[in-house]
């Protein structure tokens, strides 16, 4: 029987080892939905239009078939880096061995956290089908990637529209070595609502942080439009993604999630972080005048944010004077909140050797390794 090592014991071991970098956002891709055939009951093969049923649409024009939830917006260039295609010409992010050489070996990466990059069905209207797809995708990612290289770790997908199905999926695989977090997709239910609390309860029990990453916001499936409605162009949608995090964090704080689950961490990845001082200052100011509405809060909102919220560094903001970025982090004592993310193999990934040049070594150590070590369940 395999021994499950607790997160605390692992963290103590790693503190004594020569570890340099944890990349918190690496994207693997399916080459085709057919890769999921071994993980799905055949009844779902036809619903997903995969395997031997893949050409049914061509045979029967009246068969509505299945369409994977697609984004509304298209990058006018290419969303994937053209220098990351595999040696055989495969799509970037589809070859575990090549990705390990191209990214991990190049930057001496100790661990890379895999967050599915080809899209999910977390917000799909057919919840039963979404649950089956999610289970299959989790097993595919674990077998094809995590088992291929000890440096690969992964976040597991869950079903945000059904918290009970999410809990069952976490119970099924949430204690597997190599699974270090839970990927919760955005739907039209704010994260502070009690709908999600069963997920938070088991996540805290298992020591798994909640990772939030753009996905469903780019589809028409139960996704939250960015504050005032859908964008017209890719540049507008991509530029306004931080609004999602700025809306979700107050929901988590004011609904009392971090008072109820004090050890739960939330990592917002690919939403930037330069908006953080404004948000923390505004929430603290309003709390001073309106705290009678949220009597369950025992400390200012900014303290919950520092304790429970983590933010990915990518896509990093680039002020006219580079030193201003460091000053902004220091203004709100956010040194322990930032996680290094390469976003490999996406077009707007950040280069490790350039983006933190003006940061002191102590802060770089926290961003590169220590903050992730304390956030994810290694």
TrEMBL record:
GO molecular function: carboxy-lyase activity; hydrolase activity
InterPro entries noted in UniProt: ACMSD, Amidohydro-rel, Metal_Hydrolase
Name of the protein: Amidohydrolase family protein
Keywords of this entry: Lyase
Coiled-coil zones: none
Source taxon at top rank: Bacteria
SUPFAM superfamilies: Metallo-dependent hydrolases
Xref: Pfam families: Amidohydro_2
Residue ranges constituting the Amidohydrolase-related domain according to the UniProt record: 22-378
Transmembrane feature ranges: none
Keyword Lyase: yes
GO biological process: secondary metabolic process
GO cellular component: cytoplasm
């Amino acid at each position: 029987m395999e021994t499950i090592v607790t997160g605390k014991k692992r963290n103590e071991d790693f503190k004594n080892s020569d570890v340099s970098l944890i990349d918190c956002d690496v994207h693997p891709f399916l080459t085709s939905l057919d890769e999921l055939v071994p993980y799905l009951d055949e009844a779902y093969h036809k619903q997903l239009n995969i395997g031997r049923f893949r050409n049914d649409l061509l045979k029967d024009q009246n068969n509505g078939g299945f369409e994977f939830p697609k984004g509304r917006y298209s990058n006018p260039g290419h969303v994937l880096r053209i220098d990351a295609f595999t040696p055989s010409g495969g799509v970037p992010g589809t070859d575990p061995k090549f990705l390990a050489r191209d990214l991990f070996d190049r930057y001496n990466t100790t661990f890379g956290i895999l967050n599915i990059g080809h899209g999910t069905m977390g917000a799909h209207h057919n919840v039963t089908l979404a649950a089956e797809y999610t289970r299959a995708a989790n097993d595919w990612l674990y077998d094809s990637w995590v088992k291929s290289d000890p440096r690969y770790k992964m976040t597991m997908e869950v079903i945000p529209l059904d918290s009970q199905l999410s809990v069952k999926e976490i119970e099924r695989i949430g204690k597997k070595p190599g699974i270090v977090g839970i990927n919760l997709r955005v739907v039209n239910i704010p994260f502070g609502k009690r709908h999600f609390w069963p997920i938070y309860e088991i996540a805290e029990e298992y020591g798994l942080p909640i990772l939030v990453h753009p996905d469903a916001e780019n589809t028409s499936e139960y996704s939250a439009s960015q504050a005032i409605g859908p964008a017209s162009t890719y540049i507008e949608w991509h530029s306004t993604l931080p609004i999602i995090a700025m809306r979700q964090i107050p929901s988590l704080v004011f609904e009392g999630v971090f008072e109820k689950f004090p050890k739960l961490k939330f990592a917002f990845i690919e939403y930037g972080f330069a908006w953080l001082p404004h948000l923390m200052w505004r929430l603290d100011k309003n709390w001073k005048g309106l705290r009678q509405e949220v009597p369950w809060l025992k400390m200012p909102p900014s303290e919950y944010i520092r304790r429970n919220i983590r933010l990915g560094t990518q896509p990093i903001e680039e002020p006219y004077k580079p030193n201003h970025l460091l000053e902004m982090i220091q203004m709100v004592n956010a040194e322990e909140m930032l996680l290094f993310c390469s976003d490999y193999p996406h077009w707007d990934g950040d280069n490790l050797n350039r983006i933190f040049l003006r940061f002191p070594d102590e802060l770089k150590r926290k961003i590169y390794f220590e903050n992730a070590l304390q956030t994810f369940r290694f």
